[in-house]
Every structure is written in structure tokens, then in C-alpha cells.
Amino acid sequence: MPKVTINGQELEVEAGKTVIQAALEAGIDVPHYCYHPDLPVDGNCRMCLVDVEKMPKLTPSCTTVVSEGMVVRTDNDRVKTAVRGVLEFLLINHPVDCPVCDQAGECRLQDYYMVYGLHTSEIPLSMKVRKRKVIDLGPMVVLDQERCVLCSRCIRFFDHVTKTGEMQFFGRGDHVAIGTFEDQPLENPYSGNVVDICPVGALTSRDFRFKCRVWFLHSTDSVCGGCSTGCSMRIDHRDGTIFRLLPRRNAEVNRSWLCDEGRISFHELMAGERVVRPLVKGRDGLQAPVTWDDAVRSINSALKDTADKHGPESILGFASPSATNEALYLFRQYLSGQFGASRFEFRSGSEDSKVTAQEDDVLRHVDKHPNTMGALNLGLASEELGGIGGAIAAARSGRIKAGVVMYFKPLVPRPGDEEAEARVAELVRSLEYSVVLAPHRADWLSDASVVLPVAAWSEEEGTYTNFQGRVQFAGKAINPGGDIQPVWEVFANLLYASGDNALWLSVDDVFGRLSETVPGYKGVLLAEAKTVGALPTP
Amino acid sequence: MIEFSEEAKRRYESILSHYPQKRAALIPVLALAQREFGWISDEVAEYVGTLMGYPPSDVMSVATFYTLLHKKPEGKYHMEVCRNLSCWLMGAYGCVDEIKNRLGIDIGGKTPDGRFSLQLTECLGSCGTAPAMQVGDRYYENLTPAKIGEIIEKLSHD
Amino acid sequence: MTKIHLVNIDKPGQASLETYRAGGGYKALEKAMKMEQSAIVEEVKTSGLRGRGGAGFPTGMKWGFVPRDTGKPTYLLCNADESEPGTFKDRILMERDPHLLIEGMAIACYALNCHLSYIYIRGEYEFVANTVQKALDEAYADGILGPSVVGNDYGLDIFVHLGQGAYICGEETSLIESLEGYRGYPRIKPPFPATHGFLASPTVVNNVETLTALPWIINNGGAAHAALGTEKSKGTKLFSVSGHVNKPGVYEIVMGYPLLDFINNEAGGIPNGRKLKAVIPGGSSVPVLTAAECEGVGLDYESLLKAGSMLGSGGMIVLDDSCRMPEVLSVIADFYAHESCGQCTPCREGTGWAAKILRNLVAGKGRKADIDLLLKIADMMEGKTICPLADADVMPIRSFVTKFRSEFEALCEG
Fold first, then answer.
1. I need a labelling partner for B39 at 20 to 30 A (CA). Which of A103, A295, B21, C48 fits?
2. Strands (E), C81-115
3. What region does A482 belong to: left with phi over 0, alpha with psi -120 to 50, or beta?
4. B61 in A contact zone (CB under 8 Å)
5. How confident is the model at residue C362 (pLDDT cuts 50, 70, 90)?
6. Which DSSP helix (H) or strand (E) runs through C225?
């Protein structure tokens, strides 16, 4: 590995890496617009110029590959003067409309101006090149050509990632502008990414713009709940409301991207009416709100009665591939540990066969659940039942009397969702006794013996296992309020109340046990799951 | 829907045969399309894109880079007067004024009958025979306002 | 004076194969085809021939960089995108003696083991391209080109490719991008065209004038070429001279010929009894020389560099004492702004800004501070771009403003 010196700091760098990669990895900031770790290098912005010993001219660090003994300065006066000059050039034709620009607060022009610029503009307004503004580019993107620094990130994204080539440069010289042919809308399922990678306010999010100034937002690291890909993402929220979802770079899963459906999936979540109190069906056949303690007591006693009367095989655990690993683990622990239950299922469709099937060759998978692999790892698919159909048949024939059922609406809708939901409803109807854990209201919930209000995605921390078997941690961004509880906590309470002597105080506790006992989680550390995710040691 | 003439289609096939990769033929094909259709309209970009298998955005992006590919319909005689140094020194703007006066059009303009349009252009490589003007694929050199008058007169009756 | 390129340029019918052959044409190609390919490369190295497009890079050395064992084809591209203001030498060569170019290209192709070659001609020169095409057709019909080059077991195809109006495509990597069918954006180097050029294959880009020197070098030997000119500038050079001279045109001189003699003798001196004010010796991108600076300067790479300018493409523009230098610079700056491809920031923004400041100054609306601002913009652009176009704007800006500063200041006093 070549040894290079950057700003006096000696670094060993993997051969073939560029100076900017070496610097950024070592925590040395190099200003840049066009360089992006997940796009081909273009070298057009000239902001990342550095001074390399023995090179007569400053050189762009993004196009310069490290070599043994290379001595680089990113911080001397020569570099600073050059960078300041490039920045001044970028600003001469910029409209400087920060007060009405939605990028304000996360704009690289603003940021670098504070570090390198702080100059007074020497160009009169009349000399500025005018271009087009507020061009509607479809459901995700709004274009302002005047704010563009022509870094070509968006063009390269469509050329190299989606390979669809919608955005291009038009014109020449200082009249070059980005755009689509005849302003055609971007109908590509990944178009929202160009908003993220735009370093300035040229491409803003149709969905998010003018909703909230970015400095008011809080960020929580999470994993997308939209499909089995498990893209690393960040939830930006304020006062219990999600404002936007952004990709978190994860070279192992989603690089820097997110699909548009995943990106806007939170709207589905925020839109539905919530279950807010535990409901228990009385002798009159009507559900009435109860306290959690009462709900827990009644569930424990009903399930104990069923097990006593009909045997443990009469109890079904029907899980959801949208629940976290910790929730699923305690769910299984509760039913098998306390009542000896052995019949588990989670498939309302054919999730297990879809989990590794790609929907396209960028990110998306056919299975629209974030944790099908986790449910499979925990043995929640029953060979005997073969899916929800078998479970319904067993309930109808009386082999199964009672069931604990989870149901989470998919965040990314697909045809067939209603049918899958109808089957869960049918299962619930077929059971003599049913406990349903659900975040959102649905008509069929009135058939359940007990309804428990639980946290939805983004409201509960825990891990998901993606199509690769990679375990990734999602934090809790939103406090759902009311009597709503995280699923893992519901089962922790049920376990505690039914006399289990293990004390489950946190997701970390549960994960610790999971990684010790369940194949598929061996050697996985939660700390790793919190970054790029971790694969079990084989 | 526009389409190449049979002759242009033969020309197109011949252009393709000059290159080991199809993409290299794009710019000559755009020039051919301009010859056929007069200018590179959105429709032409879509036609060429479909013909060759590239998105129209890509085709238009290329077309807007090259000044000889017109993005608006020009006159039958598109008069492009060189404005660069040697022509400028030798009186190019006197010739431009003559064109403006005679035709009543400005730079970038076109006569109402569509016969003439006027544009300034960069160095034509006629510095030794300056000032110079290009009309279609023909050069007019050593221009004087008087000569401009003769040229316009002649082209008016073509 | 010895002539290499323009020997037969004035001969009637020289563009036809018959006349070209009658004057000894294609003898050099026949001779070259009997030589080892490497021997031709060596001969060109010996000749000291340097690229005539403007950069002056040794041609033999450029050829030497081409790897021979890549398994990919090698391409020779003839750069006939002549667009540097003041330059019209390649046009004359192609218009009047196209077979000389074809012969030179065939020799180069054989030396480089290239079997497919293009002449990239600027689109404005369509009528010139038609002449070249006619000559190519004759050469094919005669068996000079095609499957067996002048009867040898060696195939070669040469095609004309017309550009569509972009000065930047004269820059070799931009020319390659354009030939591949894209916007003519210059490429980041490395990799260099020698290894990754046209279609990512080994590629040599040579100017028309460079290639037309080859038949003479093969006929007379590299040493004979190296015997002409100065220590480091070998052979002859075409100068296309225009502006304030009595006899504008293309002239061939032996390297080192005195600049002022050239203006006064070959170019016929300054008309109308005017005095020489300044000379742009090598195309509009090179620094301007004042009349005083021209004293004792020879027309060769080193001598012009020492005088503070460059040989460039040999497109000489002569300015008499009636010229207002800020206006001249404004015309030049408009050109570079118009031709900046727009890919990288300093050039895209700097060329446009400088041009606007100059237009303002010339219109009498400038401020004194604008003069230093122009120099600052030049500093901000210089050496920070992908290709040399910005530097081609920097050189005239800096030289005009510093050498004729009082004229700029006078414009701001009103």
C-alpha cells in the first residue's frame, strides 16, 4: 500500500485510490462539488485542487491516483487562493437567492463560502447569465438552472446508475444548463436521488421543499421498511412528524441511493388512522378499551386456558415480516416458552420466495417487507402449514384454536396487498381466540378478541435482516404517543407477567440473546449493525 | 412523423459503415438530418434518437453543443459573417451593416420570406481573404459592402 | 528557401492524382512500405519534426508512446479542425494538395500499424472536405488505399469526418470525444490518447501540416529535415499571415527566419504607410508582441518563447498603429467565451466574465478596477482547467492588458 503524506499526516492508502478518497477517509476535508463516491469521476468542478510536490500545476485530487511517497497539501495559500477563485467563479452567475432557497442550510455553496470565500461580489447584476427557474421535473424534482454549478452529478446518476439518461447538458460555455428533453418529467423510480446528490439548490425535492428549514430537523439513523433490500436511511423529523427520508451511504447495500417509493413511504405511515388503546372483546362481543395490565392479564389467562384445554399445538403464532428481529424473537420466546406453542407462520403471500428476487437491477426487491429474512432465520415459517392458507385451514378445522397475530401494512404498496390483508383478516375470523398487534386501524380488527396498539416502522428501535442476511439497526425516530407500545416491549411485558424469569429491559438485551442463540446472528455485534450492518460469521 | 428520404436512408447506411461503433456516426447523422429537415427540432432529435437507439435528451444535448447544427429554422441563405479578428480588422462589420440595411434584419434575424437570415460566426479560416462570410457550404471572401450587394442581388433571384 | 509542404501548391491541377503522381507523388509511400515500421518511427524521431497544430510536441516521441501489443486496433486521427483565429494553412494544403496529406497519413498509419484512420475536418470547411473526399476516391480507385496499400499486403481505410462547429474539438481529447459522437468535452489526462484514445484504443492525433511533412522526410531522410532550421526547431513552418499586411496568405519558411523580415518581405509590409504596432505570431491565443519586442525575433519555437510569445499554429495576425488594443482584445475574448465548452468551472465562468468586462470597457462603461480584475480573472483561470482553452484566453488578456495598459486606462477616464 502506497504511503502518502497529506498536510504532514502520513497515511497508508490502498493502491488505486485517489487523493480525495485518501484525504476524506483520513478526515481531511477537501472541498468538492462533482466528486461523488458512488459515481464515475468527472473532474469538472475544480474545487478539489491540491498541491502535489513535483507537479508544476495544482491538480484535482479526485482525478489524481495516490503513488508511493506522494506529498500533498490541501491547506497552503496556493491551494486556498485557487479554491477561492473557483468558488468566486461559481458564484458570479449564481442568483444568491438563499433566503428563498430550500437548500439553505445544507448548501455547499454556502458552506464553502464561509470557509473559503467571504469575498464581495465584483460582478454587477446586469452581467449575470440568466437561466430558467422553477422547472417542474415530475413528482420528485424541481429544477432551478440558475443555481446549478454544472457538476454533472445528476447526469452521471441517470447515465451510470439507472442507465436511462434523462438529464443532460444543453448548450455551451457559460450558457450550459442541465435539463430533460422538452422538460419531460422524470418518471424514473430513482429520480429523487438527484436531489440528494445535488450539492446546491438546483434540484430540490418536490415533496419536501418549503416544508421545513433543514436546521429545525432532527435526524435518526434507520433502515428502509419498504422492501427486503434494507437500504440504510436517515429519518429527518420534527415534533413527531417525519419530513423526509434520505439515504445513508452504505457501500454494502444501497451505496448512496434510495428508491422513490421508499423515500416517500412515510406518507403511507403517517396517513393511516392509528390504534391507540388496547381493546378487549367483552362477553357482549364488543371491543372495549382496557389498560395494558388488563390486556396482558387477559391474554395470558386465555392462552393458558387454551393450552391447558387443547394442548400447545392449538396455539398459532402468526408473525409479520415487517417486525424487528427483537420483536420476533420475544414473540417466539413468549409463545413457545410459556405455552409450548410450536406452530409459527408469517407468510401471507410468498415472501420467502420473493425475498431475494430483484425488482430491477438498481436496488429494489420484489418482497416488500424489511425483515422476511429475519422471520425465516427465527424459524417462523412452518413446513406443516406452508403459509397463511394452511393456518386458516387448521383454524377452521379446529386444530388451531388461538392465535397471536401481527399485521403491519406494507409501506410500499403493491397489487395483492389487499388480498394478503384479507387473508390475515380471514385467519383472525377463523380463530376462536385471537390477539392482533397492529399499528393502524382496519375494519376487520373488530373480529379480534384482543387488539394491541403497537409501534409502526420508525417508532420502534431494533434490527432487520435484509435479503443478504445482513443485520442492520434502525433507531427510533418518532414517539407514537397514546398507549402505543413497541412490539418487543409488548412481548417483554407478556413474558414478565406470565412468570418468565428473564428480564428484558432493552433491545440490546434481546439482541445479545439473539446473537448467542439464533443461527444467522452468530458473531454479529449491535455496534456493527448500527453502521453498515453485519453479516453473521459463517 | 418525419422520416428520411430514400436517398438520405442510403446516406445514413453509408455513414454507419464508416465507423467501428454506431455512436461515432451520431454527429454526421445529425448533419444529414439537418440537410433533410432544415434544422434540429425536437422532432428531429427524437427521430434520430429512435433511429440510432439513443434517448432524445442525449441527441439534443449533443446537437446544442455544435453551432453548425441549428436549433431554429434559418433562412434558405443563412449568411454567417465572420466577426473574428482579421475579418473585424478588414471591415466585417461594414459588411454586416450592409446586410442589415439591405435586408432589414438584425443579427439573428430572418427575412419574412424566409430567404435570408443573418448571423455572426467565429473564425472561418479565411483570415487571408478577410472579411469572409459563409452561406451554406459556400464561402464568400474579400468582401466589401458593394460585393455584399451583388451577392444578395444574385441570391434574391436564385 | 527549402520547401517541404508548399512545393507544388501553385501547380495547376495539383489536387488531382495524375498531377500529384507526375510530380513524384506517392513515391515516398512506396518507399515507406518497403521499410520496417519501426524504422519509419526512428526516421521521424531523427527528423526532429514537432507537432504543427500548436503544441509543438515531438512527433516521433508521440508515436513512440503507442503500445504495440494491446490487442486493440491503433487509430491515426488527422486533426484538420483548424479553428484558431488567424490560422488557415491546413485549409490551403487540403484544398490544393490533398494527396500530399493522404500520402502523409498513409505513411503514418503504416508506421503505427494503423488500418483505420479519420480526417476530422471542421464543418465550415465542407467544400475543402469535398476536395479531400475526391482525392480519397481517386486513391481508392488507384489501389493506393483499400485492402492493399500501393500493392502491399497492408490494408488501410481513411474516412473524412466533418465536425459541426466547435473550436474546442481541435484539442485532441475533445476531438476524440466528438469523433465518438459526444459533446466535445476534453478528457482528463491521464490516460493519454496514446493508450486510451478513440474507442479506448491507442490513438495518435496529428495535425495536417505535421502529416504533410512525412513524404518529404521519407524521400529525403530524417537527417535532411533535422539539418533545416534551428537547434530545437527543425524543418520548415507554414505561417498564415493576415491583418494589416499587403500580402496576406500562407508562406513556408525555414524555422528561425526573422519575424520582421517575414512581415516586410513575404507578407509585403504594412499597407497605407502605417506603422507596425503589434504582432500576434501564432494564432489569437498566444501573447501579443509589441513592435519593439519583434526586433531580432526568429520564427521558431524557442525564439518566440524567449520573446514572451509562442509559435502556436503559425497563424500570424499583424496589427498596425491604427488599432485600439482594448477593442482587439475584446474581439479575442468574445471568441474564447463563445468557444469555451462549459465543462469545467474556471474556463466556463472566467472566459464569459472577462469578455463582458471587456465589452463594457470598450463601450466606455468600465471602471479602473476592471483592469486589475481582468488580470485577477486571468490568474483565477490559469492552469486550473481540464484543457488549455482557458490558458488560451489568459495569454492574450494578460499580454494586452500589461503591454497596453494605458489604452485600457484611457477608456475608464471619460
1. B21
2. none
3. left
4. yes
5. very high
6. helix C222-226
Distance between CA C60 and CA C44 in Å, rounded?
Answer: 5
Chain-centre distance of CA A182, in angstroms? 33
Q: Inform me whether the C-beta atom of residue B83 falls under 8 Å from chain C C-beta atoms.
A: yes
Helices (H) and strands (E) in chain B, counts: 7, 4
> Is C414's pLDDT higher than 60?
no
Provide the CA A150 distance to its chain's centre, in angstroms: 29
Q: Which three cell numbers stand for residue A101?
A: 432557497
CA distances B88 to A476, B131, C353, Å, are 70, 7, 22
CA A7 to chain centroid, in Å, comes to 36
What cell numbers appear for A477 in the block? 425516530
Give the tens place of pLDDT for each residue, C96-120.
Answer: 999 999 999 999 999 999 999 999 9
Provide the grid cell at A180: 430533460
Are A76 and A50 a contacting pair, CB within 8 Å?
no
Question: Do residue B42 and residue A180 have CB atoms under 8 angstroms apart?
Answer: no
Supply A76's cell numbers: 497552503
pLDDT of residue A502: 84
Q: Find cell 508515436 and name the residue.
A: C63
What whole-number percentage of chain A has pLDDT above 90? Answer: 94
Q: How far is B93 from chain C (nearest CA, A)?
A: 12
Nearest by Cα to A320 from A233, A381, A401, A235: A381
Q: Is B24 on the interface with C (CB under 8 A)?
A: yes
The shortest CB-CB distance from C345 to any of A46, A123, A172 is to A46
- What residues of chain B lie within 8 A of the CB of C183, using their CB? 61-62, 65
| CA distances, A104 to each of A86, A99, A474, C372 (Å) | 20, 7, 28, 33
| Cell 409459527 found at | A344
Question: Is the pLDDT reported for residue C71 higher than 90?
Answer: yes
Q: Please give the average per-residue pLDDT across B98-109, as a whole number.
A: 97
Distances in Å between the alpha carbon of C216 and those of C4, C169, C230, C238, C383? 6, 28, 18, 15, 37
Q: How does DSSP assign C275-286, residue by residue? A: -EEEEEBTBTTS
**Beta strand extents in B3-158 (DSSP E only):** 77-82, 116-121, 133-135, 138-140
Question: What's the rounded Cα separation, in Å, for the pair C329 and C324?
Answer: 9
Report how far residue C160's alpha carbon sits from residue C144's, in angstroms, rounded to the nearest whole number. 16
Average pLDDT of the segment spanning A148-171? 97
- The DSSP code sequence of A347-416 is -SS-HHHHTT-BSSSSS-BS---TTHHHHHHTT-S-TTTTTHHHHHHHHHTTS--EEEEE----SS--TT
| Global ipTM | 0.97
Residues 32-51 of B with CB under 8 A from A: 42, 45-46
Instruction: Report pLDDT digits (tens) over C298-321.
Output: 999 999 999 999 999 999 999 999
The CA dihedral of C98, C104, C105, C108, to the nearest 10 degrees, is 180
Judged against a pLDDT cut of 90, whether residue A522 lies above it is answered with no
Q: How far apart are CA B14 and CA C42, in angstroms?
A: 38
Bridge-based pairing state of the strands A71-73 and A49-52? antiparallel
Q: Which residue has the cell 382496557?
A: A290
Number of H helices, E strands in chain A: 16, 22
Beta strand pairing call for A287-289 and A279-281: antiparallel
Distances (CA, A) of A110 to A94, A130, C259, C381: 12, 20, 52, 22
**Closest C-alpha among A514, A459, A515 to residue A483:** A459
Cell numbers describing residue A82: 485557487
Residues of B with CB below 8 A from C322's CB? none
Q: Are A391 and A427 in contact (CB under 8 A)?
A: yes
For residue A334, give the nearest of A452, A496, A450 by alpha carbon: A496
- The C-alpha of B40 sits at a distance from chain C's nearest C-alpha, in angstroms, of 13
Of B62, A49, A306, nearest to C386 by C-alpha is A49
Scanning C262-321 for CB atoms below 8 A from B yields: 280, 284, 315, 317, 319
